[in-house]
Amino acid sequence: MFGIISFNSFAQGFLKTEGKKIVNEKGENVLLRGFGLGGWMLQEGYMLKINKEAQQYRIRERIEELMGARQTQEFYDAWLNNHTRKIDIDSLKAWGFNSIRLPMHYNLYTLPVDKEPVAGKNTWLEKGFALTDSLLSWCKANNMYLILDLHAAPGGQGNDLNIADRDPSKPSLWDSEANQQKTIALWIKLAERYKNEPNIGAYDILNEPNWGFQNLQEDKNGTKEKLNAPLKKLMVDITAAIRRVDQKHIIIIEGNGWGNNYNGIFPVWDKNMVLSYHKYWNYNDQSSIAHIIKAREEQNVPVWLGETGENSNVWFTDAISLLEKNNIGWSWWPLKKIGFNNPMEIKSNLNYNSVVKYMNEGGNKPKESNVYSGLMELATYVKLENTIIHRDVIDVMIRQPFSNETKPFKSNIVKNNTIINAVDYDLGKNGYAYFDVDTADYHVSTGKRSAGNRGRIYRNDGVDILKDSLQYEKYYVSSTEKGEWLQYTVSVEKKGNYTLKLNTASNQSDGKISVSVDGQIVAKNISVPNNGNAKVFVPFEIKNVPLKAGKQVIRIITDAGGYNFNYIQFLK
């Protein structure tokens, strides 16, 4: 295991490559632990719950159709101002992360080719550079590295349209020399601006190219591409342009097929270069990274996992453990969205939900005033202090890859009438804080999607959680299966025999549970009442459960599943 440097002081200077390692100016190994700011400069529809015509330009056009250009601009200005602020970067640093990947949309920095007043000349826009300057200043204040990632290149670099906000009716990056020259010019402009900034960790020059150069009809995303000649040429040209003004910064390259197809790309052409790859929904074993480890060995260059995430806590912990054992830094995706499997969940609202429904399904057009209200409320909810902070996600990324220790999810002081919600089981790994049978989505490896938390709400473990439709902000554990269990670390005020009142709902007759305290079974194979309705909760009692004063660990064990579980109440 490689040592990881301290980021308390920023004497480390520019990052650079040294063989297969990324190091600072002292030659110390640097393991990047970071987040990508997806959804800020570039909205992908799924982050907004929009799944039809979900490129940003189409989302914006459709919003304009609903409430006009002026109010649409007001929304996008508020979105850019609120989505990422100093408080976000301060928080990431406090949580234990040391780097940021900025997915840049070119249209915040320069005009599209077809909008240029003079063909072949570049108009530079201050907005993108100002946003980047602000982000860099916040990273500097926190001794963090900022990696610039061209996420949406002029014309768009792939057939996965939403990623690069590509309009397929216009020439792509690969179909247009003008788009390629604008891409190169943008990198020159960025390099000139940031060449003396040691907090800029690297230039990630082209995100997730996915284009079938040899056979576009049958291999539209370039996963089977053998030569990748246009991709290599453009990356070599970008590198040469950057090096004319900046010799210091690392240049990161990505293969075709969403970053993983490096056929025809090697050998590397720069002495300060890092290979990026992206990893989603596959197993977290050594074979899953064998291709990139092989490339690292053969090319004698470092590897960085530039994008991964969108899975369960179990998957996150296993992936980070695997990566760090192999000295591979990482950047998770994304920091925030309308969705639960990231540190910050953006809350929706009723008016915005109507906009989403209209965009996805059609039907009655929502009122202009409601569209405006819903979107501006969403732009307020995107602020960190208005999001739902998922501390379980942070814990599984920073602490759990290196510890089997469990911690209480909330402070559980047990006295007479104390209630602990079922969903507030301990923080920790599967098999230590809880045990669930279905824990993550491995569909790239298995060909079959699995859910993890099937309710996709409240927490991101394998435990299935649903929202109680009859009570505001109340949740319960569902889809219980034989052998699963939940652990609660409690602190008991007074020793004694307690009655445990479990609030459950079931329309089956075979649900059974056992209870253990500090590893000892104190109630075995207790039948869960069948009240005929899986959504109407009725408490039942388990009497004479001995609890000593102080800390102890209680487990609720499913001997036979099919019931829903809402809370435990302690009665003295």
Automatic annotation (TrEMBL):
PANTHER family: ENDOGLUCANASE, PUTATIVE (AFU_ORTHOLOGUE AFUA_5G01830)-RELATED, GLUCAN ENDO-1,6-BETA-GLUCOSIDASE B. This is Cellulase family glycosylhydrolase. Belongs to the glycosyl hydrolase 5 (cellulase A) family. It comes from Pedobacter punctiformis. Keywords: Carbohydrate metabolism, Cellulose degradation, Glycosidase, Hydrolase, Polysaccharide degradation. Pfam families: CBM_6, Cellulase. Residues 447-571 form the CBM6 domain. CDD domains: CBM6_cellulase-like (cd04080). PROSITE patterns: CBM6 (PS51175). Gene3D superfamilies: Galactose-binding domain-like, Glycosidases.
